[in-house]
Every structure is written in structure tokens, then in C-alpha cells.
Fold Pyridine nucleotide-disulfide oxidoreductase.
Amino acid sequence: MSPVRVGILGAGAAGAAAAKTLQAVSPEVQADVFARTGEQPFNRTLVNKGVAIGLLSPEQTALPETGAALVSDTVRGIDPRARQVHIASGESRTYDGIIIATGSRPHTLGEDVLGRNDALATGKLTTLHSLTDATGIRDQLAALPGSARVLILGAGVLAAETSSLLSAAGHDVALISRSTLPGTSVFGEHIAKKLLDLHQARGATYLGRTIQAVRTHPDHISIVLDGGDRVEGDLAIIAHGTLPAAPSPWNGPEGIPVDDRLRLRQAPDQRIYAAGGVAIHEHPDLGAYRIDHWDDAAAQGAHAANTLLYDHGLGDDPGAYRPVSTFTSSIHGHILAGAGHPTPGSTARLISDDPTVVLHEHAGAPVAATGLDTVALIHQWAPRLHHQHTQN
């Protein structure tokens, strides 16, 4: 029997997990893992937690080898019908199955924000998604004679965690958010309010504000808000979430729609799969959604690999993918924990006020749980998600 040849596009959480899952059935599977040209696979969770604040070097974020062949050659596109992968060096490779795990790219400010491009070019305005972003922030902070004033544009998990890390390092941080209560849709109103209280106790917050312009000066940066107010800082970090980073022919902002086994939705028999931040899931009742955090991406990568093995007669049907992965984030001395994903249309219900636990439900079934300083309780909820009539 000839080995099954698999191309895994992307070497982050989803790609590495897919490779490890496939390697477990070797020698029936031969996998190539594609990374960007010149880039070693790295743990993206350490970009803000370690490198940007100077605790880790980029080399210390490297992921361990998966056992699959690593190809450091950027994927330019795919011919889905032929299952052919075109890479930057000019070569094309054909596979029996392809797992697309190319992850995400950061949202930046809109093109209508005056001065955006000039500010990005100076590095005083930056995203925080890659090792290059992180080392740029680290170097700018290190070059200042004392503590910095850092403006965080956004107030989601990345913004909250980065704000906390910078504050703990002695920097003055201000949050600027379009929402009046950031995080409500993800954490529920009760937790969002507590997180906001933590931020406001440690720095300035500008809520319900939109950014009109960015002014770059030799020694600082100004963010011009609606109404003409200016917020001054040494550095501004954009934390407005992410967009899918799919190869051609899916390289628009929409991502790759998948079915409940993570097969390509438009052509489930094509033996093309997507996992992680590039995949668009669709719940029959809740509609389309996307998840972009490390542990869930790894779970999706393993699930896609198991579906591929099943489709090739090398394993059992893994069943429908449902997000149950957990995450934790340290924010101003408190631990934000979550399990699952609060899909669109779910409702948040406070089930405990001390400690704070919020359950996100749809049609009588819990789909996610979030809590503050309740890691053990949230982990207990994870295996109970997506089951009807769960008792508190």
C-alpha cells in the first residue's frame, strides 16, 4: 500500500497538532508541514507574554519538532481540484489530502484613519501578532530612558492581557475602545464589568470612542479621537482582533468554510480540510463563527487530521467538531478562564457571583463557560458543554 501523502499548510498550533496526530499512524502517512520562508514555527501565545515585554528571546518561543518534514517555503496558492500546493520557490507539490492551518493576520486601523500608514512605517503604531511585532515593541520600550506611556487600541483578551503585562512592568497604559463595555459578547456582562474595573483602577480608559487620525511626532504619537480629543503616548498597539489568513483561492477576509468534520464545506469529498483561525464553522442554528485561540486551534488541527485518516480508511470517524477547549489569561492579578466558545445567538447567564462564573447557552445546552479566578470550575464545565439538560 502506498503511503498517504499529506500537505499541512501552516506550522502553528493547528498545523503542529495535525502533524503529530498523523505521525502517530506512520508509516501509512507521510506529511509535509509548510512554514513561511525563513520562519521557524513559534508559539504565538508567547509573543505578548514573553517577547514583547523582554522576558523571552524569539528563539525561546520555538515549537518542538513534530516528526513531519518541515518545508520553510511560503505557500502561494492551492489548486483544490488537483490538490496541488504552489510554493514561493516556484515548486508545486501534489497530495492525497491537504490540511489548511495558515492561521490569522491582525486587524489594523481602517484606511480612513488619517496618518495610519505614516505611523505604521515609524513603528510607533504597531500590531502585536508576530515575533517581528513583538521585538519591535521590546526594542522601543528598551530605548526609552524610563517607563513608557503605551496606548492599547482595543480591549479584548489580547488587549487586556498586554495591558496587564505592561502595567506590571511599570509602564503607564491607556485603553481605547469602540465599545462602552468591552468583552460583553465573549465573557458576559458580569465578567466584562469586573475586567473594566480592573483596568480603570490602573490606567486611563477611553470607551465608546472611534479613532479619527494618528499623528506621529519625533518623540511620541498622538491618537485623535472623535470630537477632537487627543491621547498622547510613546507607542500605540493595535489589538482589534484577527482575520483569517488563507492561501489563494480563499485569500479574501472570509476564511474557509468547513463542515462539522472540518472538511471543505463546498467540496467535502475533495479531501481538503481547514483548522484553526482560518476555518469558518457554521452551526445549524447559530450561524457562522470563527475561533482564534491557541488551544482550540490545536484541537481543531487534531480533529481535521482524524477526519482525514477516516476518509482514507485509516481511522474511525471522529464525529462532529464542537469547541470545548479551555484558555486562561492573567489580567491585573486575576485569572480569566474560559471553555468552549460563546457562538453568535447564545445567551449569557450568571450561575455564580462569588466566584464569578457565566454560562453561555443555546437551546438549553451550554456552549461555553467563562469565569474570573475560577480555573478549576471552568475546567469542570468543559466536558459538559454541548450536552442538553446539564445541571449546574
Q: What stands out?
A: The mean pLDDT is 94. The longest strand covers residues 365-372.
